[in-house]
Amino acid sequence: MLLIYCLHGDEIITEKIAKQLNKKYGINILLGNPEARNKQIRFSESDLNRSFNKRGTQESQRAKELKQILSKRNEDIIIDLHTTTAKMPPIGIITNLKQLKLASRLGVENLILMNDRFSTGGSLIENIPNSISLEIYPDKKSIKDAKRMILNSRNPEMKLKSFNIYEIISSVKIESVEKDITNLQELNDGHYPVFYGEKAYKDIAYLKARKKVITLQINQKKKKIIYLSGIKNKNNQIKLYLI
């Protein structure tokens, strides 16, 4: 198990969380972007979490180094810690449903799915096996909840069987928003806002998502996921079978 912190150098709370858990519980930690962290800026030349498929910047070089470091560690779960200024409970970020196994182990029920349309191919979780991102709003409750999730994930057993999946479908410009909205609360058009209030998004008010409830049927003897798309129960839940 490994925690990566400060992939964005200005997310200092992730460093505090990681170092506290390392000191008290011996959890392995790794600094994501040392140069940006020293300057306490988001990045130096390019967003490191968009640079795993790029060349020519300090961050693309660091991404290459991280891939080399992590390829030798063979970690069974890597948690990429981030903080957000958007008021939400701790929320996981995935780019494919295979990462539900990691989310279940982490115990995070709310997940943002960045599909092929919105994933860049350059994020850490798209390039590093067994990785998942965890976004934390830096208030006491959210930090406490995030720490509990991280500690729980030391046990490799899966803990959750049902997830709220918020699949991103579009971004909404700031000028299009006429009133305050609440993250993860249904909009009039039936969609859901995520990252409303995120200051790192300069021209975007929030990301619009469609919500799905996905359940897992778990057979602990075998650890493979088979996806049966389009199979829903009477509550409109999509069933995935882990056999």
What is this structure's SSE topology?
Blueprint: E1 2-5, H1 12-25, E2 28-31, H2 34-39, H3 58-71, E3 78-83, E4 91-94, H4 100-106, E5 110-113, H5 124-127, E6 131-136, H6 140-152, E7 162-173, E8 192-194, E9 204-218, E10 225-226, E11 238-242
Salient structural properties:
11-stranded mixed sheet; alpha/beta; 243 residues; Aminopeptidase; 6 helices
Mind explaining what this structure looks like?
The protein is of the alpha/beta class and 243 residues long. The protein has a domain at 2-165 and 210-215: Zn peptidases (Aminopeptidase, 3-Layer(aba) Sandwich). It is built from six helices and eleven strands. The chain has helices at 12-25, 34-39, 58-71, 100-106, 124-127, 140-152; strands at residues 2-5, 28-31, 78-83, 91-94, 110-113, 131-136, 162-173, 192-194, 204-218, 225-226, 238-242. Strands 1, 2, 3, 4, 5, 6, 7, 8, 9, 10 and 11 form an eleven-stranded mixed β-sheet that branches. Helix 4 links the parallel strand 4 and strand 5 (110-113). The radius of gyration is 18 Å and the shape is globular. Residues 225-231 have low confidence and may be disordered.
